[in-house]
Amino acid sequence: MTIRAAKATAHPNIALAKYWGKRADGVNQPAVPSLSVTLAGMATTTTVAFDPALTEDTFLLGGAPADEIARGRVIKLLDRVRRAAGISARARVESGNDFPTASGLASSASGFSALALAALSAAGLDTDPTLVSDLARRISVSAARSAFGGFVELPVGSPGEGDLAAIPIAPPEHLALRVVVAVTREGPKAVGSTDGMEHTVRTSPYFPAWVASAPALCARVREAILRRDLEALGVAAEESALAMHATSIAARPGLLYWTGGTVEALEEVRRLRASGLLAYATIDAGPHVKVLTTPEDEPRVTAALAEVPGVKRTIVASPGEGARLLDRT
Ligand SMILES: Nc1ncnc2c1ncn2[C@@H]1O[C@H](COP(=O)(O)OP(=O)(O)OP(=O)(O)O)[C@@H](O)[C@H]1O
Ligand SMILES: C[C@@](O)(CCOP(=O)(O)OP(=O)(O)O)CC(=O)O
Q1: Residue 187 pLDDT more than 80?
Q2: How far is the CA of 109 from the centre of ligand 1 (A)?
Q3: Among 134, 124, 116, 125, residue whose Cα is nearest residue 9
Q4: Which of 25, 235, 239, 312 measures 20 to 30 Å from 126, CA to CA?
């Protein structure tokens, strides 16, 4: 009995134009276009081994068996790969994130992108990044973007269960960007992205306005990246993040991912801008503030954020590569 295994790594990505909300008439298709930068400096590494001797799929995350919901998402991806490859062997999956899991730092994005690549490779299937992206998107929409490096766009989906993959628009070295992550809380967030956006779509009177305005915001982000205009990029990215959070704050009951530290960090970003530094904020479905800046201004931005009450620590990241294979046996 042969065991076929592959090991892959992927980075999280941070959306500069946010995805928030799924299409009502699609299967895990986004309701709005999004655009992200893949981040070096944080990574997931995942090994998938299809072993005919196994009676069920196992999933170790960070050295311990993952909960049933997390394992269920992994099995969903493996089942798709098994169907495509015509194999029935169960798999042993081991994964580790070198940054906090499920706390708003996009562990689902790097996690499912690395898993998609490792599973396709271990099953002997084509590992073209577009196929990795489409497979990862079926489990977690933002994971589609981590298949590629640099600046990556994910268009809106289509009705039904059609294919949808992200598209790279510029390589990592295209723009000298730094992202300073101000970590404001350790530990997992109370409401995951999937549940948070489902609640927002269903109950927020602002959701239709968000869907109407997101394409223009995404276009502004894309154009600013293509002409290397970091200031215009920062303005549009901050608008996108605040508009996304406004939809959730207006849900019934309101969903607030922020803590006091989030607001303190946002205020510091405004003070830094007033003092002449390039600094714009974006926030995902969690309390951390991610600050877009230049390599020159990064040390001062990082030092200032580290002093903010409620900021526990900072992580500095730069544009990075897409998902890649480390090993195959
Ligand atoms: N390395 C991994 N391999 C497979 N699944 C993972 C991995 N890391 C995280 N996950 C899955 O992703 C879930 C966390 O995703 P969730 O979207 O709630 O939070 P997040 O990591 O903060 O991401 P985001 O910033 O996109 O919201 C975990 O509960 C687990 O199911
Ligand atoms: C706020 C976000 O990070 C939301 C990410 O949501 P997910 O992709 O984690 O949600 P699911 O598709 O349900 O898995 C914005 C973004 O990354 O675009």
Answers
A1: no
A2: 7
A3: 116
A4: 25
Tell the residue nearest (CA) to atom 1 of ligand 1.
111
Contact present, 113 and 46 (Cβ < 8 Å): no
Domains, the chain, ordered by start = 4-174 (3.30.230.10), 178-319 (3.30.70.890)
Q: Which residues pair with 65 in a beta bridge?
A: 60
Residues 6 or more apart in contact with residue 134 via CB below 8 angstroms: 144, 163, 164, 165
Alpha carbon of 22 to ligand 2 centroid (Å): 10
Nearest CA to ligand 1 atom 10: 108
Ligand 2 atom index nearest CA of 30: 12
Of the listed ligands, the closest to the CA of 105 is 1
pLDDT digits (tens, 9 = 90+) for 18-58: 999 999 999 999 999 999 999 998 999 999 999 999 999 99
ipTM computed for the complex: 0.95
Cα–Cα dist 144/109, whole Å:
7
Distance CA 194, CA 200 (A): 10
To 5 degrees, how large is the angle CA 58–CA 45–CA 115?
A: 55
CB of 153 within 6 A of ligand 2: the answer is: no
What is the biggest distance separating any 2 CA atoms in the chain, rounded to whole angstroms? 65
The bridge status of strand 280-282 relative to strand 151-154 is unpaired
Instruction: Report which ligand 1 atom has the smallest distance to the Cα of 96.
Output: 1
* Cα angle value 77/82/87 (rounded, 5°): 160
CA 284 to ligand 2: nearest atom: 1
Q: What is the mean pLDDT of the chain?
A: 96
- Say how far residue 158 (Cα) sits from the centre of its chain: 21
Residue 60, pLDDT score: 98
Are 41 and 97 spatial neighbours (Cβ–Cβ below 8 Å)? no
pLDDT at 19: 98
Return the higher-pLDDT residue of 90 and 105. Answer: 90
- CA 51/CA 238 separation, integer angstroms: 47
Phi/psi of residue 178, nearest 5 degrees: -125, 145
Q: What is the pLDDT of residue 116?
A: 98
Look at the block and give the residue holding tokens 């903010």: 308
